[in-house]
Design a protein that fits this description.
The structure is a homotrimer. The first copy, chain A, contains 12 helices and 19 strands. By secondary structure, the first copy, chain A, is an alpha/beta fold. The first copy, chain A, folds into 3 domains: about 250 residues, Aminopeptidase (3-Layer(aba) Sandwich); about 90 residues, Glucose Oxidase, domain 1, CATH 3.50.30.90; about 80 residues, Arc Repressor Mutant, subunit A (Orthogonal Bundle). In chain A, β4 and β5 form a beta hairpin. Chain A starts with 8 loop residues before the first helix and ends in a 7-residue tail after the last strand. Chains in contact: A-B, A-C, B-C. Chains A and C meet through α10 of A and α6 of C.
């Protein structure tokens, strides 16, 4: 595989940010037109398949819910003035609210209002997917200003049989063993969670599409929880092809990278991501798997136990802007998304290059000097560090250690060991045996 | 099994302390009437079997010794005044002293006297079980006052064929796999070591007798070393039924709890005790197994290697009052014994509840919300922590992890995970498979 | 085996230092008369076999090189004065320099000169074994004084078919399982690296020759890299007999001991050396295996993967005097060589005594008291520490733990556990089963 990193990262950063900005106003939910139109926009970038699964379909212990759509919503005072309006922010309506049109006392209304007293200017994001109800989310300042005796409320939504939509795109590789890249795409006007994940995934798919990778890469754009459950239920036999996977979310904020391990904890994906982060030179955090978070909960349920981790910047719930109107176009910045994007590319490159090799001269060291790849007097062309990489690969290439194992034992970056491996292959001092090339 | 913890702990504390006070004056040894009468008093609390093993019985590499009894002992000056008297403290006589009646010079007497110069008011406790000799233990103050030229000594003891006595009580459970609770009961007037262990064991047996536990609980009241060796020799075939065990000693002093691991180091009992202590909120210490201490030396000999640890407060030899007259009714306090007792109860509850369960919906999470045990908007009734416990149990209940494993991975107290397990069992989301219920 | 440590260590220290002083002036290389005459001197101490392997012999990926010999070399100014002379120090000539006799401009000469600007009085040590070239090593002061326009250079060396020489000596043991002691012997006037290693090995061989050890001990005196490769190529079938091995180098400097683990990292030799160093009471360092250093690179190549570590004082490259004329008779001191020698002896003693034993009374403790090896009242003759050693051995001698395992679990020095093992063997409380005695 040729190197993945595109030359012009600034351009890519602007493009990813532009996609986020374009998707930002759309009112997405776990079903409905908002999700569907989002997928259609993604099709401008990658040849995404858009799948529809009818309401009522049984998916393991769950049922695909009715489809939700919304046209308008407001709270008006009796003078007919909109004091809360869906047009201003789609966060104002509790997502999946049932239709309502009524005149209510201030106290009755209050029971359907949600705000964040600690952040009086921010609108919270709330959902009620599996319990039929309705409500409005407002800034605490607005909530406190609602002191008239009666209000008129209207939510012009529908909850009816329809379908659940999800997007899927496969970059075919040399083998049918797959790398899964999954991102939840159901949130309305929230940038970090998870328009940033959608944008990163789309551009990663575009990069990979220009190569012939070793693994096949499956990109899923699904509604959270019900979407991954649905995909797993419809592709149950297929799941075992997934050799590695990452759930992409919250990749545009200024925080450090955070990797949440797969349930296995020591899967190749866990080790590759930790290695890349360790050698990044930047602060990062590794978190153990916990059965809470994003769709890794489903991929890592005990009946699947797939090697799927989640690589974010600041994780869900750990930044104050999380699930509020402050997770906006100012909170995510192109430079952070680009930094996340580069990390994902390095991980892909390491997964692609990680293999098990055999030293073809395992008894004593081969004479590197006469092959011109080891200094006779003094260090070689690339210096002593690279000679050490050659010696490490030769010493450990006994069919038991992967490139990653060698990099970790040598305490060197993966790419140095991978480069040494390439040179030794070229000099026929190493080989990969056929049945392990997959 | 219903919860074990009795409502009125203060009452239990007073009762345990009362039993200690009642047993305190008796001159026990590894054989003889003192041990026998102690067992008879315990029969007032639990239906203890009192077993007698004749002197001379071969028990592995050892032989049951002659029975020792003592009526009186003293050192008199030539004016006929008792300067040392068995009536004042049974510690004054080296335990297992052979009979003697003689007039000795001060120098000859001196060779049979033992004291503790660093604690001039305390009488040491000494024994000579396996080497025939005699002696007196005195406070250093008394020793220094013996400056007359001659003394009369008398030890009115007997060492003759008889038997070794031990007490045994089995609380039957649903299976014949056993939990062994063993305490040495051979020490004379020493409260912490080990009247405290006797009292705790008796009251633990009483609690368990009111339930129908899963395990059978075997309580042994044995003379140290020779008693456990005798029991193991007579019950060699039976020993493999012991699934878990604890040697109870020194549980009434003010020190922190100390758990000495079984020889295995990672047996279930080791992990359960450590878990309970870790979540106790109080300081504690874990010690590795060493082949020195109490009867765990025998239970953990390599030919048995039973999973038996020892849970004490301050261990043998690590408090200055150890094996002296200062290990008295002021040194042990009811509140410390009650605290130890509660810890033992929690351990029993955890052993009883620890099991391996299977998630019956292992593919993706089951929909807890429609079962009313997971919050739809916001946290559920018991809050987010308990929801996390439900998710942890579901995620890890794959037949490989026990309740304890789950509690440790979730970093939650055992009882929270056990409670979540109960609820999921009730909702038929979990099961224990038949052959693993034992 | 009787104890190895000779009574008169001061004498041994002086003898080893004397051997170093005698070998110091000789110009050794990886082949040639200097190496050969060195071996002949060693034959005065041990009955060493001197082997010759013809130039051109294929040894794995390498070829035995032409033999190098040198008679004289100098740089003269045009007044005929030697400004650099081989007679003053054999380090002045780049080892394996091809013959040259020429008149050169100062600039041309400069390209063949090597110095150490940071240490202006020291002559560096350089080699060019596998690339035909020539050069002079000089102190930086001399280099800077060469400011005349032209010089005459002469290297009166020869590079021609001949042979590679190495020395080999086997002390036969009770089994044919071997301990390998290997030291590179190709360096010219450098004392720590590696005349110190040669001297230590010779005197260790002399000590062992006076005993009948359990293992056979193979001593190799080989030219670095090509020598161990040659030995391995000629003894390929034999290599699997090597049960443990050490590469001896840099054992005379004032630094602390440093053990570089074998590639396996947890081989018995690794554990024994670490144990001995840990209980030495002196500072020491353990380093992980890296595929760089001395001949352990070859012994630990993946096709052999022999349990061979390297025990030095300050390792190669980590002291400023390394590979310079400052690695001289003042840098190494008898007391440091003796200290290294004692450490090697302790390691040999531990390898010899390390075995797996069975407790013949595994059920409960045997009654040590009646055998007189355990105190009845108070501690026994050797005190409580030794009684603990007896109890540890009995408790762990279940056929799974070696003497070393027991010493580590007991946190006691190996020799204490070995002594306890001897006593228990004498009392027929332990046995070594036949098939494990090898």
């Amino acid at each position: 595989m040729q190197p993945l990193l595109p030359g012009d990262l600034e351009h890519i950063g602007a493009d990813m940010y532009g996609l986020i900005a374009r998707l930002y106003p759309i009112c997405r939910s776990i079903t409905g037109e908002g999700f569907r139109s989002t997928m259609r926009i993604l099709q401008e970038f990658i040849p995404l398949a858009i799948n529809e699964v009818p309401s009522g379909t049984k998916v393991f212990d769950w049922t695909v819910p009715k489809e939700w759509n919304i046209r308008d919503a407001y709270v008006k005072n009796l003078r007919g003035e909109r004091v809360v309006s869906f047009n201003e922010s789609n966060l104002h309506v509790v997502n999946y609210s049932t239709p309502v049109k009524a005149r209510l006392s201030r106290d009755e209304l209050q029971r359907h209002l949600f705000s964040i007293p600690e952040h009086p200017k921010w609108i919270p994001y709330r959902t009620s997917y599996y319990k039929e109800s309705w409500g409005f989310c407002v800034s605490h300042e607005v909530l406190e200003s609602l002191n008239e005796p009666e209000y008129e409320v209207c939510i012009d939504s529908s909850l009816a049989n329809g379908s659940l939509t999800y997007g899927e795109y496969l970059v075919p590789g040399k083998t049918d063993r797959e790398v899964l890249i999954s991102c939840h795409s159901c949130h309305p006007s929230l940038c970090n969670d998870n328009l940033s994940g959608i944008a990163l995934s789309v551009f990663l798919a575009r990069c990979l599409n220009q190569t012939r990778p070793r693994y096949s890469y499956r990109f899923l754009f699904v509604p959270g929880t019900i979407g991954s459950i649905t995909w797993l239920a419809l592709n149950e036999q297929h799941a075992s092809r997934i050799a590695h996977g990452l759930v992409v979310a919250c990749v545009g904020d200024p925080g450090q990278m955070n990797y949440k391990q797969s349930r296995r904890g020591n899967a190749e994906i866990d080790r590759v991501v930790e290695h890349v982060l360790k050698h990044s030179g930047k602060p990062y955090k590794i978190s153990r798997f916990v059965p809470y978070g994003y769709d890794e909960r489903q991929y890592c349920s005990p009946g699947f136990n797939l090697p799927v981790g989640s690589l974010t910047r600041t994780p869900n719930g750990q930044y104050p802007e999380y699930h509020t109107s402050a997770d906006n176009l100012e909170f995510v910045r192109p430079e952070h998304i680009v930094d996340s994007f580069k990390t994902y590319l390095e991980i892909v490159e390491a997964l692609e290059a990680n293999g098990i090799y055999y030293n073809l001269n395992p008894k004593c060291e081969p004479q590197l000097g006469r092959r011109g790849i080891y200094g006779s007097v003094g260090g070689g062309e690339r210096g002593h560090g690279f000679e050490m990489a050659l010696l490490w690969v030769l010493n450990l290439a006994d069919g038991h250690a992967s490139t990653l194992d060698i990099a970790e034992k040598a305490e060197m970056p993966f790419h140095t060991i991978a480069e040494a491996t390439e040179i030794l292959l070229k000099h026929r001092l190493l080989e990969m045996r056929e049945d392990e090339a997959g």
